[in-house]
Design brief:
Shape: elongated
Strand content: 5-15%
Number of helices: 6
Structural class: mainly alpha
CATH topology: Outer membrane efflux proteins (OEP)
Helix content: over 70%
Distance between the termini: 76 Å
CATH architecture: Up-down Bundle
Number of strands: 3
CATH superfamily: Outer membrane efflux proteins (OEP)
Mean pLDDT: 87
Number of domains: 1
Length: 323
């Protein structure tokens, strides 16, 4: 019978390499989690903005529906008194019905937007929204300075660290592990008992055929991770430039829509309404002018939504001092 204990002792290089691999894997997992968190925050912000502007559109359409119903009643009254033709009364009724259809579509859009927001923030999506959306300050210089802090770049950096740790692990095989064993054996009665101490050391022979190919493969992984990180940085920078250019163009369009198109169409609609009330114009002219004013207002809301969405995405993707 023989009993004993044995203990393997990895080389110091291997132990340090193992710790580096573990740390790199933790960093890579945390970077992947940061990317997922960013995607969730951006999606929640997009859903909130979509719901906010869906409610704004419904408010505009409800106001217009009231005006269309009032025009339809006025047209019916004129028809009854002989002051207007059948065509005007029918046109007013059709316009009111079409406006009601758009109100129904806007209500459905609100329900869909709220469902999407509920997916991200739960029951809080059923609470009333703020009176105004957040204001986002987009500073191109500051955003460019934060490109390397984007979670996808951090993830690429963590991937490179993991590849470097694997290279260190491959290199650690050049240094041998060792083990020791202490045992005690009881032999046959005619023989005395035996105690032994044994030390084993692995010899890293034939390194060019054993360790070197693995090291070369891990070094190639590091080079590939470097290239992928540089590609990710270039892609992120290009994406930022596209977003900034789009934000600038949309902001300019929004300023023109607010300052020129919307006021002009509103004045034209007010003039058409006054002319129709005075009996100097037709209901068709009023419907046309009112429809143009509505489309101008919807265009402003669309532009506001797109500017707000871009501002939220830029602020969340490249966080800093901007609100």
């Amino acid at each position: 019978r023989r009993i004993g204990i044995m203990q393997s002792v990895p080389s110091g290089f291997e132990r340090r390499a193992q710790r580096a691999v573990a740390d790199a894997e933790i960093d890579r997992a945390e970077a992947s989690l940061d990317v997922a968190r960013l995607e969730a925050r951006v999606a929640a912000a997009d859903a909130w903005i979509k719901l906010y502007y869906a409610e704004r559109r419904l408010a505009v359409l409800n106001r217009l529906a009231g005006e269309a119903q009032a025009s339809a009643r006025a047209a019916r009254a004129r028809l009854a008194s002989g002051g207007a033709g059948v065509d005007d009364a029918i046109a007013a009724e059709v316009d009111a019905a079409r406006t009601d259809d758009r109100v129904s579509e806007a209500s459905a859009a609100i329900a869909a937007a709220r469902a999407e927001l509920r997916r991200w923030i739960g029951a809080a999506a059923d609470e009333p929204l703020a009176a105004a959306p957040p204001s986002f300050v987009v500073d191109a210089a500051q955003l460019h300075a934060r490109v390397e802090d984007h979670p996808t770049i951090e993830a690429a950096r963590a991937q490179r660290s993991a590849a470097e740790a694997q290279l260190r692990m491959a290199r650690s095989d050049r240094w041998p592990d060792w083990s020791w064993e202490v045992s005690y054996g009881r032999r046959a009665p005619e023989l005395s008992d035996m105690a032994s101490v044994e030390v084993r050391i692995g010899l890293p022979l034939f390194q060019p055929w054993r360790q070197q190919p693995v090291i070369d493969a891990r070094r190639a992984d590091v080079n590939r991770a470097d290239a992928e990180r540089e590609a990710a940085l270039r892609e992120r920078t290009a994406s930022l430039d596209v977003q900034l250019a789009e934000h600038e163009a949309l902001s300019a369009n929004l300023a023109r829509a607010r300052g020129t198109r919307l006021p002009l169409t509103r004045r034209r609609a007010a003039a058409a309404n006054g002319a129709y009330g005075a009996g100097t114009s037709t209901i068709a002219a009023l419907i046309l002018a009112r429809g143009q004013a509505l489309e101008a207002e919807m265009d402003v809301l669309d532009l506001e939504e797109r500017v707000a969405t871009l501002g939220a995405e830029l602020t969340l993707q490249y966080p800093g001092d901007t609100p």
